Amino acid sequence: MDQPWVYIVLFGLVFIVYAKIMPKPSISKGQQNPTIYEIEETMEHFTAELDEQNKALIQLLAETRRDYELQAARLTSRIEMLEKQSGQVGQEIMKLGVTTEELQKQLSRQRTEPLSITPEPRQAFADIAVEVIDDKAEAVQSPMNMKVRYSELFTMYDQGKSIDHIAKKLGMNKGEVNLIIQLAKQEERLNAH
């Protein structure tokens, strides 16, 4: 009686060992739990969307960088151009200052020089008086007022036209138009005092 029982136990042990040794068959996606399959699909879809968004962000960043570099280059060239124009205007102002000083010196010399009397004093005096009167008449007829001298420019400026438009219309440089407007404003301030 002991023997059949031993055979049954041995047969059970062999069966357990055989079950452990045998490879387990893989479970296909269709046979898995449906919840796990849905989670995997959702995760794959989510990672695909993240990849697309990352690529779009990288492309947008690259475009923004290109636009920034282009704008920076434009601004740098504009600054260089404005610095050059500023230097030219500064030189023109210095020339005007030197010319003004020379004219003031000449005027002061003319005021301090005595009149020379010629053998015909009446005629010489009459000629000088006529010249002075003619000079005064010309000064009255052609005032040095900037707004009168550049009336067309100030008419357009008062109408609200841009400096670019005025410069193109009159065939002048924008810096020159700005300088004339600034000089007229200074002239008005000086005349107001």
Automatic annotation (TrEMBL):
Residues that span the membrane, as ranges: 6-23
Keywords: Coiled coil, Membrane, Transmembrane, Transmembrane helix
Pfam families in the cross-refs: DUF6115
Coiled-coil parts of chain: 43-85
Name of this chain's protein: DUF2802 domain-containing protein
The organism of origin for this protein: Paenibacillus radicis (ex Xue et al. 2023)
Lineage, opening ranks: Bacteria, Bacillati, Bacillota, Bacilli, Bacillales
